[in-house]
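Let's do one together. I've listed all components of the complex below, 570 residues spread over two lines.
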Amino acid sequence: MASLLHQIQHQGVTINAPLPLDSGQVLPSVTIAYQSYGTLNADKSNAVLICHALTGDQYVASDHPATGKPGWWARMVGPGKPIDTDRFHVICANVLGSCMGTSGPATPDTASGAPLGMAFPVITITDMVRAQAMLLDHLGISRLHAVVGGSMGGMQALAWAAAYPDRIASALVIASAARHSAQNIAFHEVGRQAIMADPDWRDGQYYGSARAPTKGLAVARMAAHITYLSEEGLTEKFGRRLQARDIKSFGFDADFQVESYLRHQGLAFTDRFDANAYLYITRAMDYFDLAEPHDGRLAGAFAKAKDVRFTLVSFDTDWLYPTSESRRIVQALQSVGAPASFVELSAPFGHDSFLLDVPALDRIIAGTLGRGG
Amino acid sequence: MTKLRPDLEIIANAIPGRTRVLDVGCGDGALMAELRAHKYVDARGLEIDVAAIEAAMAQGLSVVQGDANRDLADYPDDAFDYAILSQTLQTTERPDRVVEELLRIAPRAFVSFPNFAHWRVRMSLLWNGRMPVTRLLPVAWYETPNIHHVTVSDFRDLVRARGIRVERAWYLSGDRPTSDAAATWRAEHAIFLIARG
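Okay, and this is what the predicted structure of the assembly comes out as:
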């Protein structure tokens, strides 16, 4: 399936300028695939950048080209929606290192023409943001009305505030964190090991072959998917109910509904995602710690962001990026005097709440973006 | 704009323009919006109720969810010119510590509270022997959020003991001002502007 994935054509731009990376390496040029919605106004002041999560993509409000499913935030983005494309020019770019058209491990090497695989440099969240800034330069947009993101998208929004505070008027950070915790890294490492243990991974050089490490990628997705849901949500949805049978099989089929669900989630994921991209992006998230360059003081990251309006939202059932992480960010923002709003919303869906039907989130996003569009 | 509550209007009139203000227990941000619109004040809020925070955020106000008992500690010293605590002091776990936190965060603070020594309260206790249920204290003793009832005299004693200066005070009977001299029994509501000693 991975080979089919790489045959999809995406709208994008190749920028022939070097992209310096946190690792010290340099990408000589970068291709960025993106979607945009709504009209950029004459003074270019109504641009909103949406940053997607780990396994998200630029098809925020368009049908997914591989799965045909509606965009991942179609409920939030569109005409008359909370992020109103009648008022805002919305841009969403596939992140650096991903697999939907932007430069990543499947990108061909300029010399040999073969996919880079693990020769693609390790990237960071800030590198992703640098690439987005290059895209905005290319589009002639010097300043964003807002940068919006949930989960890893929220990390990018925070990195925007740290790296380019003069280029954003506001940042909306939903269900996110300013660093990856030991537990976050641990879950990602399980996923990476599952991919690398798949014999079809072959050190990342599987692109030309008929077989991709789909089993490993599916297991990685299964482990990660558990972290996106709440225990309460899982119990309510599946409990201990059996899948299409009345009695236990005394075997290792998917006896329980929750097993069947996870297997399906894992398998479906391999139709739309590349295993190497999963390795690179999870690595970028694990390396994320905005306080690190400032001797562990998070406030240092926001020292120049005093004029950025921040909105942070957490969910009470999100144990992946819990409320305490949002509060830590708010505390840092308060210590530099940046205008910050924060609210913990109650929703049953765990971390995934930011993607699902939480009317209070819609109202907050619409309200926060609403002024001065 | 809807009319502000009388105590908030007094505070709004007393705050100089272009200052930095923290409204603790800001509700839906009515006072903050007024200060921003008419005095160019850089106003921030702290509020515990999610629906109220949503309403404030929808007006583009900066409000953080939090509890005056715990979360004032997150603000640095002198982060603001004024802190405001309106009709909240009597609901806090340690009102004395909250007052000290306010004057750490800002050199000056407005503190308003219902006066438990108002004559109606006194009468209710004297004649009925029961905790009063009045216009400003409308909830029965067992479910009231007001866990530290305070009188004008109590508050004056507290600030004196802590070396805090009272720069101004306003007393309301109904929605009308009443004199300093009669405040201890005639004021339903008191508003103090206090400052570090």
